[in-house]
Write a structure and sequence with these properties.
There is one protein chain. The protein is of the alpha/beta class and 445 residues long. The strands form three sheets. Strands 4-10-9-8-7-5-6 form a seven-stranded mixed sheet, with helices on both faces. The relative contact order is 0.17. It is built from 15 helices and 13 strands. Helix 14 packs across helix 15. Bound molecules: pyridoxal-5'-phosphate (PLP).
């Protein structure tokens, strides 16, 4: 599945990455693959990942001093751009007052109140350190609450690297074409049922057969880890009806979409289904403001099962860390209506340039949206599930990625990822990116 290094085309400015290459060589000696999260390794696009040195607003600089417009935005968290003054101020003040106490602080209450205030069906939350921890804990809670073991998930949905949720996952697992991961015991994988996304009939069939053993169905609120593949009209509502009819919980994973698609995430765009809200939600990325903070929450009667109130154990030495909570709180508070408007403008402009340039050069493409989140599939026709998402020209994406990189635009290094913009993407950054798209499209035509 891994493509060879894309061919460099004559006439494009060469970008030397000597410092990144040297750092990667050193990193490889002491870190597997030289990276601490697989998709950073450029595995599917080839070439050397750039080691980053600093960022400000929409721009990031690598170890060789090259400047890029950042369309990764740390995979979502940097919704305000790099070094936003409010967040920097909050982090600095929090750090000066103490890094960690392992005891409750007011900021945790404020952050929890902010989340509960934005997402109606969420009555209580517990703070954790990563999206993976959030989904892992939500699943344990669902199992504890229902007294059942089976979990239903969708192919191409990524919920972090939780054993039970790695089956047919998107994101890095999709990028590398990995099978279900070694190290996940058959006993864990055997408790997970994987279904095609947007296929309500498949969900109905599985629940008809094993509904009384299913603890929860977990889904990305609007999938973004196989590229952006929103739920078909009525799909979320159908999931709610089916799970409810069988006494299973519905877990909406808003780690990526939460506080990005709208002030209250995907839920704010789609609305609460007429059949009822999901029971549990998971959050991460934006709510940490670039620091390790995430959360899971939902119905108070379900959350009451958690220790110390209830018997389901869940804990964390650094959970609710003062600096991370300060960053998350400052980020959410700075996410005004103007911020969401700017995200829409920037993503709308960039997607428009892609459509125009790719059409002019006859490059098959399809753009899909979830709020301001969008991704460009290198294929024609609607993408509704993992099978259609995989049926695209990944090799051509690799050439496009490097053509963009050479022109100072850092895209996510995989055709299965969302392009993330920030409110700090000003006209200069947008115009720079637009020119790069036009030239890169001509190059890969
Ligand atoms: C990123 C992501 C996760 C995992 O979060 P980490 O902080 O990387 O562990 C879980 N679910 C979704 C939908 C994500 O996009």
């Amino acid at each position: 599945m891994m493509s060879a290094h894309p061919v460099d085309h004559a006439g494009t400015p060469a970008v030397h990455s000597n410092a990144s290459e040297a750092l990667l060589a050193r990193a490889r000696a002491v870190i597997p693959g030289g990276v601490n999260s697989p998709v950073r390794a450029f595995g599917s696009v080839g070439g050397t990942p750039r080691f980053m040195v600093r960022g400000t607003g929409p721009w990031i600089w690598d170890a060789d001093g090259e400047r890029y417009v950042d369309l990764v935005c740390s995979w979502g968290p940097m919704i305000l751009g790099h070094g936003h003054p409010d967040v920097l101020g909050a982090v600095t003040a929090a750090a000066a007052a103490g890094f960690s106490f392992g005891m409750p602080t007011e900021r945790e209450v404020l952050l929890a109140e902010e989340i509960v205030g934005r997402v109606g069906p969420v009555q209580q939350v517990r703070l954790v350190n990563s999206g993976t921890e959030a989904t892992m804990s939500a699943i344990r809670l669902a199992r504890g609450f229902t007294g059942r073991s089976l979990i239903v998930k969708f192919a191409g949905c990524y919920h972090g690297h939780v054993d039970a949720l790695l089956a047919a996952a998107g994101s890095g697992v999709a990028t590398f074409g990995l099978p279900d991961s070694p190290g996940v015991p058959p006993s864990a994988a055997g408790e997970t049922i994987v279904l095609p996304y947007n296929d309500l009939a498949a969900v109905e069939a599985v629940f008809a057969e094993r509904g009384d053993q299913i603890a929860a169905l977990i889904t990305e609120a609007s999938p973004g880890n196989m590229g952006v593949v929103p739920p078909a009209p009525g799909f979320t509502q159908g999931l709610r009806q089916i799970t409810q009819a069988h006494g299973a919980l519905l877990i909406s994973d808003e780690v990526m979409t939460g506080f990005r698609c709208s002030p209250s995430g995907w839920l704010g765009l789609e609305g609460v289904p007429a059949s009822g809200a999901p029971d549990l939600f998971t959050f991460g990325k934006v709510m940490g403001g670039g620091f390790p903070a995430a959360a899971f929450g939902g119905r108070a009667d379900v959350m009451a099962m958690l220790a110390p109130e209830g018997p389901v154990y869940q804990a964390g030495t650094l959970s609710g860390n003062p600096v991370a909570a300060a960053a998350g709180l400052a980020t959410l508070r700075a996410c005004t209506d103007e911020v969401y408007q700017r995200l829409d403008e920037v993503s709308g402009t960039l997607a428009g340039v892609v459509t125009e340039s790719f059409t002019r050069h006859g490059i098959p493409h399809r753009i899909q949206w979830a709020g301001s989140m969008f991704s460009v599939f290198f294929r024609e026709g609607e993408v509704t599930d993992y099978a259609t998402a995989r049926d695209q020209d990944a090799e051509r994406f690799g050439r496009f990625f490097h053509a963009m990189l050479r022109r100072g635009v850092h895209l996510p290094p995989s055709c299965f990822e969302t392009w993330f913009v920030s409110a700090a993407h000003d006209d200069e950054a947008v115009e720079h990116t637009a020119r790069a798209i036009e030239q890169a499209a001509a190059q890969i035509a």
